[in-house]
């Protein structure tokens, strides 16, 4: 049997991965929950891609894309390569650009935004610190509540270091750093959030813990305060139910590192009030962020599209089809992505990636979404990527 050269194998694997991702985007478009423009913006900002999936499909041409997917499906037999019904329908109709979806999301654009004079952040980890830095730097007094006074103090110290780095990069000034730090108050009691107009929960990605946090916020926060969760994949609706004020709750999924990443997924539930959505839109603009609306489905937009692509790359490794460095190089060279899948997994953190992949598998029940064996194994071994210096590629000689 003739074995294809490694370079060709890497290019073929890259094609399988990227076309699977594009097809999944078309399936998401079929749902009517999101608009193609919102998806493109989310993927460009959230993953720093040169183009969103629908922009990419437009560039390829829908007829060409369907033919490529048909060929891939015949070769691989993977459901990910079976062209989405809408994609095939548009191609058959001779449409070469993917049309905008007819169904648009509920919006708060015509409602009155609630005034925000003080923001609360519940948590003291990486995301909580990053969000508090962003809100304080934008001129908004911010109260950060941690589990203990030492954790709260450590959080402010970390924010100070981050702001100093921004000054060194020319992104802030010494005066701006001082003013931002002066806007941050800290506490170790959730009651300190009672005067906040909007509270952003940024605690551990565990639904039971988040629900307990929202139950506490529901008790102490003033009537009319907006309550938001930064969850990347858990149910926003479950948090809303725990708060006891469902219309006031939504998701504000900031991306890490929050001071750098400009995307915020604005996640509505079936109960989120129009005024709450308007408030979220106004806040994103005030923070210099781009808010992209989406429904409360596992993975929202970015993780729904990104992690099946990453997980399939690991399954290719498990099947002995690819070398991580070679596949990364092929994806970067052929499609202009800033990072290949294995480098990106190491950057995100394999533990975080595994948790999101498990959530997607749990929610959708698709066997293809089951976490890849190597991903689970490396996490069990404590090899979590860049944060531990060992992962799929972390620790390689530079």
Automatic annotation (TrEMBL):
3-hydroxyacyl-CoA dehydrogenase C-terminal domain span: 17-91, 299-392
Name used for this protein in its record: 3-hydroxybutyryl-CoA dehydrogenase
Lineage of the species this protein comes from: Bacteria, Bacillati, Actinomycetota, Actinomycetes, Micromonosporales
3-hydroxyacyl-CoA dehydrogenase NAD binding domain residues: 119-296
Pfam family, one: 3HCDH
Family that this chain belongs to: Belongs to the 3-hydroxyacyl-CoA dehydrogenase family.
Organism for this UniProt entry: Phytohabitans houttuyneae
Pathway(s): Lipid metabolism; butanoate metabolism
InterPro entries with a match to the protein in the record: 3-OHacyl-CoA_DH_NAD-bd, 3HC_DH_C, 6-PGluconate_DH-like_C_sf, 6PGD_dom2, NAD(P)-bd_dom_sf
